């Protein structure tokens, strides 16, 4: 990675786990999108991209303006913040509880990751995708139209700003399906069949409010879970960190947490479980979290920064790909050999979700939604959610879990 710019990390938190003997990343690479403007630059970019996908699973894109014009970014960020800062009762008008597709507003205290409550609130919106038909598997409800929009009078221009931003990230995502294929020495079009038509991209508007307690003067500034350790479910995630707060961290293969600080005019990109699956583990779905403390809400001079805002777009595969389809990608041998077979990877993400994600992207994402938003799950999928939560709890407390808690899919399984 000699030609790649690196973010230095002087703030590494060591977990109590033993280090594995394999190389683990200690910094997050920065890939310059303007390299794509020349043939020689593109070659350099693809080689950096390959290394970033395989070794780190996290990287920054710099020079993003061509893809996301500053006016599109700024309008989106300002409208998104405006929405997130409305009074609670206004936000509850588009409560996620009303949506069987898990879209809309999830208030503080309602979301859980790794069975712990996250310290954040969110709005979720999807790119335009139709709702599933009555004969489709229940998990296909992870997609459907956005039926809930904020009142135009409350945040004027919000919908237009969000749709414009999401479409622009979607275009970058389409290009990434080609660049990832090329970085893995595949035909440019090799990954296209894994995506739905229209493609499914979800944007989350995340607000991490300031904690109520003032930061202490001494060193016992307790950490708390903004969002708990997890892997994203999709292909790639494109994250705009919209405030200067530190807190986002990626976990390397030795279990050490590496900071991913905000860098102005960049996007953070990370690999999701689906990309890891279709590449047989060559691309790494890296565990990450947002680890906060009262002090992280102050700038270098001790002035309050306000809430932390962050806006990820999750680019996902076709929800109903089968496990056979997911295993059908033929990678060249020299690329397959990059997967570190048998390598020990320390991860604090819940292994419980792995089997669901291997089954199909939709099953994996639906399961994750049910455990993250159990109240929405209880409203729309009462029988299923209890089984999944029970399975999750058993998995967390049992070393030799072999239970099959997926019987909720049997009535809708297409192969039966
Ligand atoms: O807030 C962030 O910066 C990251 C959020 C995240 O990882 C997620 O929502 O999946
Ligand atoms: Fe994430």
From TrEMBL:
Any Pfam family hit: DIOX_N
One biological process term in Gene Ontology: small molecule biosynthetic process
GO molecular function, one term: metal ion binding
Occurrences of domain Fe2OG dioxygenase (ranges): 199-317
Region ranges (Disordered): 1-20
Keywords: Iron, Metal-binding, Oxidoreductase
InterPro entries (alphabetical): DIOX_N, IPNS-like_FE2OG_OXY, IPNS-like_sf, Oxoglu/Fe-dep_dioxygenase_dom
Family indicated by similarity: Belongs to the iron/ascorbate-dependent oxidoreductase family.
Name listed for the protein in its UniProt record: Isopenicillin N synthase
């Amino acid at each position: 990675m000699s030609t790649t710019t690196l973010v230095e990390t002087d703030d590494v938190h060591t977990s109590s786990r033993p280090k594995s003997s394999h190389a683990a990343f200690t910094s997050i690479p920065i890939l310059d999108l303007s390299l794509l403007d020349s043939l020689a630059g593109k070659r350099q970019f693809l080689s950096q991209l390959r290394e970033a996908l395989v070794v780190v699973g996290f990287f920054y894109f710099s020079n993003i303006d061509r893809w996301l014009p500053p006016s599109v970014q700024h309008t989106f960020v300002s409208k998104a913040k405006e929405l997130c800062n409305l009074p609670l009762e206004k936000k509850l008008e588009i409560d996620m509880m009303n949506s069987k597709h898990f879209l809309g507003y999830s208030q503080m205290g309602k979301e859980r990751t790794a069975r712990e409550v996250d310290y954040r609130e969110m709005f979720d919106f999807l790119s335009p995708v139709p709702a599933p038909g009555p004969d489709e598997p229940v998990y296909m409800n992870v997609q459907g139209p956005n039926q809930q929009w904020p009142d135009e009078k409350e945040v004027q221009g919000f919908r237009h700003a969000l749709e414009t931003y999401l479409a622009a990230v979607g275009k970058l995502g389409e290009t990434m399906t080609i660049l990832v294929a090329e970085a893995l020495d595949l035909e440019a079009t090799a990954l296209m069949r894994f995506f739905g038509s229209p493609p499914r991209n979800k944007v989350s508007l995340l607000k991490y409010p300031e904690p109520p307690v003032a930061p202490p003067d001494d060193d016992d500034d307790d950490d708390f879970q903004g969002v708990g350790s997890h892997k994203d479910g999709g292909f790639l995630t494109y994250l705009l960190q919209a405030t200067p707060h530190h807190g986002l961290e990626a976990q390397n293969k030795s279990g050490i947490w590496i900071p991913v600080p905000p860098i102005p005019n960049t996007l953070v990109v990370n690999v999701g479980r689906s990309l890891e699956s279709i590449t047989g583990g060559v691309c790494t779905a890296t565990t990450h979290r947002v680890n906060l403390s009262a002090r992280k809400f102050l700038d270098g001079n001790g002035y309050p920064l306000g809430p932390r805002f962050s806006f990820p777009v999750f680019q996902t595969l076709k929800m109903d790909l089968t496990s056979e389809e997911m295993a059908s990608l033929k990678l060249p041998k020299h690329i397959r050999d990059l997967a570190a077979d048998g390598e020990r990877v320390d991860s604090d993400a819940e292994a419980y979700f792995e089997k669901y994600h291997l089954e199909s992207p939709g099953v994996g994402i639906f399961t994750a939604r049910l455990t993250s938003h159990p109240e929405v799950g209880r409203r729309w999928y009462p029988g299923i959610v209890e089984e999944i939560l029970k399975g999750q709890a058993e998995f967390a407390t049992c070393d030799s879990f072999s239970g099959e808690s997926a019987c909720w899919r049997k009535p809708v399984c297409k192969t039966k």
